[in-house]
Amino acid sequence: MLTTTTQSIRRVFVESDMDRVDVIDVVHGHVAVFCRRCPGKIEPNDDSAAMIQTSSGGIVMVVADGVGGCPLGYKASAIAVESIMEGVQQAAPFADLRPAILDGIERANHEILDLGIGAATTLAVVEIQDRMARAYQVGDSMTLMIGQRGSLKWKSTPHSPVGYAIESGMLDEQAAMHHDERHLVSNLVGSRSMHIEIGPAILLSARDSVVVGSDGLFDNLHLGEVVELAKSGKPEKRMAALTDLATRRMNEQKDGQPGKPDDLAILIFSP
């Protein structure tokens, strides 16, 4: 069997407060990254992000949102992304990345618990190999897989009472945006009851995109808005459109519109 190697790339974004989009060239496309503190916030950004391209051309993207109100949320999210990056980087070339990702999540859970201070984080991970994409999730950070024409090919379900209510049809998205319990999360890295949800393998067409983001994105934009802004265009423009609208919503908080000041972390894979 003929195998080829490609350039390995590893980028980690911890306690970042970016003022411009970072675009990383990868196999078959680009990964755009943006991480920023909540407007007016003095404490470090609790959101962390990372991406790695392996020597076999596999791509892994990670977003972790340290739980606000818990001690050292930014430390918990940093541990999560670093654990996954280390596991994937140590995996043998051309190996299945699933065991490395799962082991990284489990290792992060143990390490955060060992801190003994109640720290915790959400986690959303996507691996892309040979145009097959699969998501892994703990908490309410989310992954969307978007077709070129704006079809939503797949989305993760937030691990929260409100997220499950939307998925079951008991609550619509508009009502969920303003629900009193929208900030509650029922599954976290840093919990003895943590569980990992593994999504199905989704075949990406040549112009499909993948968005991974913290709730700083999804609490401020409706799913349809994220899909419309992220489906096409240059990577920088897609990301700028998402972050500009999220920032306006955070600052304006108009009646009838979502609006929640928060840290923000977004990765977009696009052709």
TrEMBL record:
InterPro entries in alphabetical order: PPM-type-like_dom_sf, PPM-type_phosphatase-like_dom
Signal peptide: none
Keyword set, alphabetical order: Hydrolase
Keyword check for GTP-binding: no
Keyword Hydrolase annotated: yes
Stretches assigned to the PPM-type phosphatase domain: 30-271
GO function terms (MF aspect): hydrolase activity
PROSITE patterns per the UniProt record, alphabetical: PPM_2 (PS51746)
Name this polypeptide is given: PPM-type phosphatase domain-containing protein
